[in-house]
UniProtKB/TrEMBL annotation:
One of its GO terms (molecular function) is metal ion binding. Pfam families: FBPase, FBPase_C. It catalyses: beta-D-fructose 1,6-bisphosphate + H2O = beta-D-fructose 6-phosphate + phosphate. Its cofactor is Mg(2+). This is fructose-bisphosphatase. SUPFAM superfamilies: Carbohydrate phosphatase. It comes from Hemiselmis andersenii. PROSITE patterns: FBPASE. Keywords: Carbohydrate metabolism, Hydrolase, Magnesium, Metal-binding. PANTHER family: FRUCTOSE-1,6-BISPHOSPHATASE-RELATED, FRUCTOSE-BISPHOSPHATASE. InterPro entries: FBPase_C_dom, FBPase_class-1, FBPase_N, FBPtase, Fructose_bisphosphatase_AS.
C-alpha cells in the first residue's frame, strides 16, 4: 500500500510491500470460483515469519528503495542520470540505542497507560539512559521508519481508546516493516508481542506498531510487562490466537 498519501505533496509518502511464501494450496488460486477464491484469501493469512522479502520506496527529495530478502537490509537511491537505483546504504543497521522518539502526541492521552509513562520518562530523562530524548514525527510511516533505521530510537503507531487494535494493517504494513526492522538489528512489537509472530485473523486486521532500536523497544516493553491492566493483557492474548477469518 501507499502510506502517507495525504502529505504526498510534501514529498514524504511511501509504498510498502511484502512477499510471502507460496503454499501448495495456492496453485489453484487463478480459478474463478467463489469457493476457491475464499480458500485463497484464507491461505494468504500467514504470519510475518513466512515473509521471504519486504521493503519500501520513499518518494522524497530523492527516491529511495530499501528492502530485505532475509539476509540484512540494503538501501538504494534512484539516479536519474542513468535511470537506475544505486546502492547507497549497504547493510543498514539500527543503532542499539537512539535518542529520538517518534509518535503523534496529539493522541497521547488516548494511549495505553504504560506507553504514556514510557514517553514521559523519555521526555524527563527518567529513563534507563538518564537522558532526555528528542521528538521527531513526519506523519508518514515510511518516512518515520526510514529515519529510525538510520538514526535509531523508537517509532510508534500505538493503540488508543479510539483504535484499540491500532490502525496499521498487519498483513501488508506492520509485518513487512517489522521484518525490515529486525533484519537491520532492531525490534518491532505491539507493546508486548513480537509482530512477526502474530497470525493474521483477517486480511485487513489492524495492530499497534512500536519499533526501533533494540534497547529502546525493550525498555518500552518493560512498561507493558509491568502493567496489570486486564484489558491490555486480554488484547495481547487475543492477537496470538490462530483463528483465521477471511
Amino acid at each position: 500500500p501507499t502510506v502517507g498519501s495525504a502529505p504526498v505533496r510534501l514529498a514524504c509518502a511511501g509504498t510498502i510491500f511484502g512477499v510471502y511464501e507460496e503454499t501448495e494450496s495456492m496453485e489453484n488460486c487463478m480459478v474463478d470460483e467463489v469457493a476457491v477464491d475464499s480458500q485463497c484469501i484464507f491461505n494468504t493469512l500467514q504470519p510475518g515469519t513466512s515473509l521471504v522479502a519486504s521493503g519500501y520506496c520513499l518518494y522524497s527529495s530523492s527516491c529511495l528503495f530499501v528492502f530485505t530478502v532475509g539476509n540484512g537490509v540494503n538501501g538504494f537511491t534512484y539516479d536519474r542520470s542513468i535511470g537506475e537505483f544505486v546502492l547507497t546504504h549497504p547493510n543498514m543497521q539500527v543503532p542499539k540505542r537512539g535518542k529520538i522518539y517518534s509518535f503523534n502526541e496529539a493522541n497521547r492521552w488516548l494511549w495505553d497507560k504504560p506507553l504514556q509513562e514510557y514517553i514521559t520518562a523519555l521526555q524527563t530523562g527518567e529513563n534507563e539512559m538518564k537522558s532526555q530524548y528528542s521528538a521527531r514525527y513526519i506523519g508518514s510511516m515510511v518516512g518515520d521508519v526510514h529515519r529510525t533505521l538510520l538514526y535509531g530510537g523508537i517509532f510508534g503507531y500505538p493503540s488508543d481508546t479510539k483504535n484499540k487494535d491500532g490502525k496499521l494493517r498487519l498483513l501488508y504494513e506492520a509485518a513487512p516493516m517489522a521484518l525490515l526492522m529486525e533484519q537491520a538489528g532492531g525490534m518491532a512489537l505491539t507493546g508486548k508481542t513480537r509482530i512477526l509472530d502474530l497470525p493474521p485473523q483477517a486480511v485487513h486486521q489492524r495492530v499497534p506498531f512500536l519499533a526501533g532500536s533494540t534497547d529502546d523497544v525493550m525498555e518500552m516493553k518493560s512498561y507493558y510487562d509491568a502493567s496489570e491492566d486486564p484489558e491490555i493483557i486480554k488484547r495481547c492474548l487475543a492477537r496470538l490466537e490462530d483463528d483465521k477469518r477471511a
